[in-house]
Structures are given as structure tokens and as C-alpha cells.
Amino acid sequence: MGTIILMGVALTLLLISFFKNRKKTKKSIMVAKKMLVETVINVTGLLLLISLILTLIPDELIKSLLGNSSMFLSGLYGAMIGTVTIIPAFVAFPLANSMMGSGANLVAIAAFITTLTMVGFVTLPIEIEHFGKKFAFYRNGLSFVLALFIAFGMVIIL
Amino acid sequence: MKKNKKFKIYFVVLILYVIVFFISREKFFEAINSFYLVLKDMIQVLPPVMILSGLISVWVPKEIITKNFGKSSGFKGKLISIFIGSVSAGPIYAAFPLTQTLLYKGASIENTIIILSSWAVMKVPMLIVESKFLGLPFAVSRYLLTLPGILIMAYFANRLLSRKEVLDSIDSLSGRVLEIEEILPGFNCSGCGYSDCSEYAKAIFYENEIASKCVKQKEEVNFKINELLNEE
User: Fold this and answer.
1) Between the CA atoms of A131, A136, A138 and A142, what dihedral angle is there, to the nearest 10 degrees?
2) What is the third-level CATH fold of B170-231?
3) What does pTM read for this prediction?
């Protein structure tokens, strides 16, 4: 749904731009094309690698990590798994639900969901390309810490 | 060299997939399937986002970005940043090109972090899906903690990172600064108030400095640089 709106907005603006100034429109398309190609080349390899590694990790291992009796550790494991995982959000929530069903702690799930969306190991190369090393490391580091705070805060609230 | 490194991973991945294929067909297809799901997501979201950032970089003048997202944009700037992030579709990596465009056109580090983070987590459709699978209290309390968390994190990031230093470290932008530097006469006379031509070029590109400060070839430099910047 959101994606369709996004496509609609982009297409409309592109058309307006085209009628106003063809040269500028052509230039913006060139900018977009270059960015797209670079991003796809940068991410696809890592994506394939991570997909394979995650498939090979046994489910039992993940269950035991996220259901750890120490609340701090299970939160930390949840945050780490969320960092290296890359899956669309609409897949993540049913997955998180089934993880909770099989014994994962609330704190682990909260940390997992937050780092999954905010912290990206696979996408680090594109982040570095767009914002430089320092920015990318700081942002991901701070987001990781924030995810832990949010997760432990939720345990207090709920 | 950099290109080779990029393609090396494809070679490694290919070998690993071949090995897994012979050990377990089931795992092989499971991996391909989870790869396919993310790829499908990327293919739908990335092109429109790239087009939008292309259009912004060509059409929207720096002054507007600086006014709305710059360091003196205040509370209003933060609100617009959260709004932009939460109405956009797609995962965080889709936000990188667009946010980079905003950053070099004048947005502050603080607002850049706010846009990226709220793009990643603060979304109404995602809130609905999350509460469906994990319960409304879970989803709502996570959002309530995340919003102030993002603002605090952005505040710290702003203190830890200088905007100039970040922009300097972005390789893909340094080429555009060089284009400006090439127009400058290169006497490094400091007549403009900057230590050398290269510093002045950076100030023009990143900080919206006016292009008429060169004392050696004022008119010519001013004209050519403005032409270059307006053309981009």
C-alpha cells in the first residue's frame, strides 16, 4: 500500500518535472539511475551471503539465545540477531510472533524488531558510501544502544 | 581495486551456494527464497525513492533545505523530519540516497539522523501490522519509547559528529567539490577569507557560501560556479 503511494508520488512529480523542463528531468533520472545501480551491486552479494548463513543457523540455537534465562543476555542476543538479519518488515512481525510462541523473551523480541529496522550490517557498505565511515558507525552504534534501552523500558512498562 | 573487492563477494557467494546445493537442496532453496523476498521489496521501493532524490537534487534549491532542515530550523525542523520519515515507504537503506541529498543541501546532522531513524521505525502501517501480530500494548509502548529515544540519539549524534567532517568523508561528493575547485583560480591567496581555494570550494558546496568572494577573478568565478550549481 505504502509502496504504491510512493510510486504514484514519484511518477507524478516526474511527469510534472518533464513538462516543466526536459533537460533537468533527464539529469535527475541519470542521478537516480546511477544511485540505483550502485546500491543494487553493493547490496545483492551481501544479501545472498546473509540469506544463506541465516538459513544454515539451526532454529534451536536462535530459540535458546532469545529465550535465555538472563533478561539482559536475551535482549543483547535479540539486538545482535536483528542487526545481522535483513528481512522485510511484513515478514518480521509474524516471525517475531512465532518466536514468542516458542519461548523467546519479550525483551529479546523488542530488541530484535528495533535493531532489525534501525541497525543494518548488510547495508553498512551503502550507508558508508552515502555518509562516510564515521557517520555510519556512530549511527549504527547509537541505534544499537537505543534498541537495548527501548527493550528494557518495555519490560518495565508491560 | 575497489571494483574488484565489490565483485569478490559474488565469487565467494557463488561457491558457497554451490556447496550448499550439493549438501542440502532444501536449505539451498530456503536461502534463495529469503533472498528473493528482500530483493522483491528492494525492487519495488528503490526506484521511486531514487527518482524522488534525483528530482530533489535537481529542483529544490539549497536555501529551502537549509531553512527547513538546517541547524537553525529548531523544533519545526525536527517535526518535519519525523513526518518525512514516517510517511515514507520502505526500509532504511531506501532512505540513504534521499537523506544524503538533504544533508549536502543543508540539513543538519541531527535532522538527518531523525529522518533516517523515523524512516526505519516510526510508521503508521507498520504500527498496525505490529499490533496485529504482537499486540497493541507491545506496539504502542515500543513506539512511545522510540520517539523520544530517536530525538535523544539525534542530539548526541549531533554533538559527536561535525557536519563538515561527515560531508568531507563522503567519497561520492568530493568529485562535485572538485568541480568547483577547478573553476577557482588556484592562487590560494586567502582573499576570500578561507585558508585556500579548496576550503572555499567546500564552503560553497556544503555551507551555501556565496560564490562572489574570490578577489582574483570575481565576476568570472561567480558566474561559472552559479551556472554549475544551478545546473546540477
Assistant:
1) 120
2) 3-methyladenine DNA Glycosylase II; Chain A, domain 3 (1.10.15)
3) 0.84
